[in-house]
Amino acid sequence: MISTMPADDDLYEQAYQIGRRLRAQGNWLSTAESCTGGWLSKVLTDVPGGSAWYDRGFITYNNQAKHDMLGVSEETLVEYGAVSEPTVLEMAKGALNSSRADISVAITGIAGPGGATPGKPVGTVWFAWASALGSTGDFIHSEQHRFEGDREQIRRQAVQQALLGIRKHCLQD
Question: 116-132, pLDDT tens digit by residue?
């Protein structure tokens, strides 16, 4: 196992801190997941009292689900593919638009062992964090990461990065 791999206790502690801050601020979070298959939602809902700050999660493992549940355009999926910046941005916006959340996070990637394409190796994961809390309007930020390891390790690292991004990009001090 990779030494930087977060333990479940570490993921729980991050989710707990996020929940504490969201609740104190009166804000709601939603998630849109593809390659993590609901793992981020599981970590967030492991925190007791999460129903006071976690609105809902969308597990959109295939393109049709991304389109139907989050409004990702078919044109985006055809032109850029499921694992792309345009897709993850539309996923994050769709999670906000399809919920009462103030903040959303979206994840789409290739966890392996198959699925790699030229320019998109196994371990390629796109993230987007969106917020409707800004005093100057909505905020959205995207990042691509390339993780090492097997399928479980890549997915765990993606959950870790999603949690870090919520704290870094979306939560007010």
Answer: 998 999 999 999 999 98
